[in-house]
Specification:
The structure is a homodimer. With about 180 residues, chain A is of the alpha+beta class. Chain A has a single domain, classed as Chalcone isomerase, CATH 3.50.70.20. In chain A, strands 1-2-3-4-5-6 form a six-stranded antiparallel β-sheet. The first copy, chain A, is globular, with a radius of gyration of 17 Å. Chains A and B meet through helix 1, strand 1, strand 2, helix 2 and strand 3 of A and helix 1, strand 1, strand 2, helix 2 and strand 3 of B.
Chain lengths: ~180, ~180
């Protein structure tokens, strides 16, 4: 085995261990009540974008405080590159971080601090036939994150689905994800 | 081949194609003058953090305008998890994005727009023995990015190294990278 093969094997093994794909080809799994187990290895999924909606720009009461790091599962990213659409089974993770600092060596801005929350959206028109677009939304609270989701519903005006219905495409704010836009077929 | 094996193979193949590792185990390659070829597949490297230092928080003249998405090469990430240090060969990519919007469904904030720049730091105390910490800094300009780097030096007070010397660890601003901090051994 050459060095090259060894490193490729190492990386492939890491991806495999970090991002298990279950026997049905899914990257996440549900319990019998359609609660979603916390995804594994999401920080090595495909990062698609970050935003910051800090408390100090929202009267001290941001709806989703501070930084968001957003990822898509790697199987759905491959599908997106081929089809420009989100497959049944598409899963997005949004991890929230506090603002750690507003001043750095390169000037004033927003710099991330600690992880403060984990939320997931998942599309499956078969599993969630009554949810608009088949999208369901889940939360794992603050660290240490829960093993199993609290359902955030997905169909009300004041919960996730209410805003996400106004995303540019299929309940997703693709307008903020330059990486998805560049990979659009 | 089961579905699971198929998808793992697909993902491993994607990582391989997106992030080639060269015969010497390196994730990047240089020309004879130590100019660095633009890394391949950096958006599927390991994302470690994002910051925003927008023009409108810096008198209209930000030193590094707007959003930064920062990645580390996957081989060096594996090394960091084992050692808590950056190996010779460690490569960071910082991609710059414009501010696309300051108002979204979840409130006021900074939302990314388009890619506007690509910069890389690379540590190698053998290749760059005269650079502090062995770090060299490179730029690929604005899109479409160059194939080969413009050297940003790395040892002056007003260029990359001048600020990076003040990063928390080894010329890296690890204080902003919660993902690295969580994976510290």
């Amino acid at each position: 085995m050459t060095y090259k093969q060894y490193y490729v094997f190492l990386i492939a093994l890491t991806v495999f261990l970090a991002s298990p794909v279950f026997a049905n080809g899914e990257t996440v799994r549900f319990d019998a009540e359609n609660k979603l187990y916390r995804p594994e290895g999401w920080r090595q999924w495909v990062f698609i974008g970050a935003q910051v909606t800090p408390n100090d720009m929202n009267g001290g009461q941001a709806y989703l405080p501070e930084f968001h790091y957003v990822y898509i599962d790697p199987v759905s990213f491959e599908q997106w590159k081929k089809t420009g659409a989100f497959r049944n089974g598409a899963t997005f993770v949004k991890e929230l971080l506090s603002v750690g600092s507003k001043e750095g060596m390169t000037g004033n801005g927003y710099f991330p601090g600690e992880f403060i929350g984990l939320e997931v959206s998942h599309k499956d028109t078969n599993r969630f036939p009554d949810n608009p677009g088949g999208w369901a939304f889940f939360s794992y609270g603050k660290p240490p994150y829960g093993e199993i989701s609290a359902d955030l519903k997905g169909d009300g005006e004041l919960d996730c689905g209410g805003c996400h219905a106004r995303g540019a495409e299929d309940w997703v704010f693709t307008e903020y994800y330059a990486i998805l836009n560049e990979e659009r077929p």
